Amino acid sequence: MSRSIPIGYALANLPRYTSYPTAPHFGPLGEAEYRGWLAGIRPEDPLSLYLHIPFCRSLCWYCGCHTSVTRSAERIARYGAALEAEAALLAAALPAHAGVASIHLGGGTPSTLGAAGLRRLFAALRARFGIRPDAELAIELDPRVIDEEIVAALAESGVTRASFGVQDIDPAVQRRIGRLQARETVEQGVAWLRAAGIRGINLDIMYGLPGQGAAQVAATARFAAELGASRVAVFGYAHVPWMKPHQNAIHTDDLPGALERLQQAETAEHVLVEAGFQAIGLDHFARPEDPMAVAARAGTLHRNFQGYTTDAAPVLLGLGASSIGGIEAAGYAQNEPNERRWVAAVEAGELPIRRGRAVTAEDRLRRRCIERVMCDFALDLAALPAALVAEVRPALAPLEADGLIDLTPDLLRVTAEGRRHVRHVAACFDAYLGTGAGRHSAAV
């Protein structure tokens, strides 16, 4: 355990740095400006698509995603049709490009579209965008909301990777987060995916949940390893009831403290590394042969709104209510978050952009620094402008004194003890931190 690191680092609230500038610093962005950004895409630029399906069958109390509960087939079908219409609008606005390298369906629970809806959606994407033969098609799944027909539809649509939300396998913890999910349900879902030929299987687990201790986290990590997952993500529960009021169902007094959270995170890492996984960045683990582990070793790992990724495309297009995309050279764009207003805009033939942030040359420089720190735990200072290095050195000095980093004139390296606190290192390059109204989750 990294007990020598002052506990104050674990107590701090910091961004997750899935973008820079981060979402609290977005402002109004109009359709015309976004269309201008799209027009600047180059013929050699590959694309990535993120599609947000916000529906769930029931509400998980820990959830921090943009979701709503519905069982209305009409509402879901209208949303699916609007996704197809938005894809058509986006495709028509694009200049020549190098095709789609990655598609990610997230939520919510994308399988609420049903087998037929998923087939239609993937067919529409293929018709509107050129999907490259080596593209990764990924989907987030709730193992309680799939069946063999849905899995068959995914396989037929070319899906190559699926992520199951596991969180914790202890029924007592599950009751306290509003998500009862038998381990047999997860096992059956994994078996269906493998039988259908979908071999890329990710499992997401959590620490910092109410009633959770290191023993429960260890048991869940062992379960993920024994199921033979390709990747395991270990996320710390972010208690943000000021943003997600349903989290008030979880009482703050029932949550583990900062030191307990740190112990739980380190316990999960120990179990997974012992089981043969390679630690990736802050909270991901992958089999050594998995493309994510290969990218981490090669220094080509990236980070975007889905977390750590092998996706190197400079253009990420967001579809669906609240989805966020980013064009590397231009900025970030977020869709209308309200489902009804998003549907109405799309049905009126509008690209439903509402918020975003144009990026400057300095933003792009700092973004590269933050991404390399988060992905590589190292940064070549000699390759940076001297003025930037001089600016951040005073902020880095306390981290060096506390053992989080090693510094030389030419290199910043995050120490083994400091890796759990890498967001503090990244924050040294954030020119906007503390200047906005946003509040962030715990750093560990």
From TrEMBL:
Q: Where does [4Fe-4S] cluster bind?
A: 56, 60, 63
Matching entries from Gene3D superfamilies are given as: 1.10.10.920, Aldolase class I
Q: Which residues participate in S-adenosyl-L-methionine 1 binding? A: 50, 107, 140, 324
**Which cofactor does this sequence's record say it needs?**
[4Fe-4S] cluster
Q: Where does S-adenosyl-L-methionine 2 bind?
A: 62-64, 108-109, 167, 179, 204, 238
List, for all copies, the residue spans of the domain called Radical SAM core: 41-283
| Subunit note | Monomer.
Q: Which PANTHER family match?
A: COPROPORPHYRINIGEN III OXIDASE, OXYGEN-INDEPENDENT COPROPORPHYRINOGEN III OXIDASE
Family membership noted in the UniProt record: Belongs to the anaerobic coproporphyrinogen-III oxidase family.
Annotated protein name in UniProt: Coproporphyrinogen-III oxidase
The organism that produces this protein has a lineage beginning with: Bacteria, Pseudomonadati, Pseudomonadota, Alphaproteobacteria, Acetobacterales
